[in-house]
Design the sequence.
């Protein structure tokens, strides 16, 4: 199931805020498609979610979750592929100082 792969991928992300957004986007897409996680996938999802929640204040987690859940699939895909994980889409370094 795709969600298991996404959970594993986000678990390896060194940026917990990026991981929260990506998990929220994945969760929203799964819900909108009517997908149900298999037991093992749900256990992995819950474990990663608990770890991410422990790394930040609850209000910050909720903010990031809402941002990720609001992403369109195209936005989430582009965000997942960005190296820096910036939300403004400027991961090329253009306009940045020396």
Sequence:
């Amino acid at each position: 199931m795709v969600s298991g792969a996404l959970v594993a991928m986000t678990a390896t992300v060194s940026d917990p805020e990026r991981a929260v957004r990506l998990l929220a986007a994945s969760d929203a897409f799964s819900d909108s498609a009517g997908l149900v996680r298999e037991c093992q996938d749900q256990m992995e999802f819950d474990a990663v979610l608990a770890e991410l929640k422990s790394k930040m204040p609850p209000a910050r987690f909720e903010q990031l979750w809402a941002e990720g859940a609001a992403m369109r699939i195209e936005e989430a895909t582009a965000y997942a592929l960005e190296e820096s994980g910036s939300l403004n889409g400027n991961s090329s370094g253009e306009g940045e100082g020396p």
Remarks:
- The CA atoms of residues 24 and 81 lie 16 Å apart.
